[in-house]
Structure formats: C-alpha cells, structure tokens
Amino acid sequence: MEQTYYIRETEPQDLPAILEIMNESILNSTAIYDEEPRNLAYCAHWLENQRKQGMPVFSCLRGQATVGYGTYGQFRPKYGYRFTVEHSVYVDEFHRGAGIGQMLLSALIERAQNDGLHRMIAGIDAENHGSIRFHEKNGFIQVGHLKEVGFKFGRFLDLVFLQLDLSNH
What we know:
By secondary structure, this protein is an alpha+beta fold.
C-alpha cells in the first residue's frame, strides 16, 4: 500500500531526521551558508526557541518517516519588522520532486496569514535557480540581489531576496 505524505507540527522524535536533512544541506549545498554540521542538541534548542517565539516548525511525514521540514522566524530582530518573517523549507534528498516542498510552503503561508503577518521573505543562493523558480511560481517576487555576501566551498556567493505579499496571496 502506497504511503501518502502529510504535514504536522514537528515533534521531538522528528529531530534526528531533521538533523540529517539539515546536515546534508550544510555539507552538500549552498542552501544553508553554514559549513559545520549541527548536532541533536542544536536541533532541540532550535525547536524549543521556535516554540517559545510562537513560530511554527512543520514536519512532512511519509508513514512514520520525517522527510522534510519547514519553518519561519522573524525577519529582523527589531520591533518594526514584527509583521515580516523569513522562511526555510528543506526536503530529504531522496524525496525531492514529490511535492513536499509545496506542501510545506503552503502550510507556512497559511499559518503566516492566520498569524496576521504581512510579508514572507525567502533568502536564496543566487545559483539555486530551481528554488527561485519554485518561489516565483508561488507568488514570490525578487526584490533584491546582494553580491558576494556569503562564503562557502572556497568562493563568494550571491544571495537573492524574494518576498510574498501575504495579504494578497
């Protein structure tokens, strides 16, 4: 019997799989501009902080296996930015292309709208054309291109910002 994917709030038992997804992105891509793998204590602290701040962390599961996660957090730490969030969506390398990213992004957008937020920001490596197209397909528009602000794998990286108007989405 084929198992379907579903989204739910992240639970502590999801963290080992989230850690694997996170570290795969750190070690093999420019999706995360960190270079050192994280550990389970980091993930537990991150989840606790997200919950304390009232920020969502969603897991996508197939059966009992966590195959993706998505979250958002305050865009900048100043009070004036309180209606703007920056989101992240990551999918296990073996489940990409199955619509999981869309499910997670849709859940995040719905939650942001329900939370009364105004804008959602995506910060994406400029060479990640697939992610940029994905976001544009979902109504995000490119609003900025920062040259050589990141550094990873021995080279400088450009970062693009896209934003979504949550009130008109």
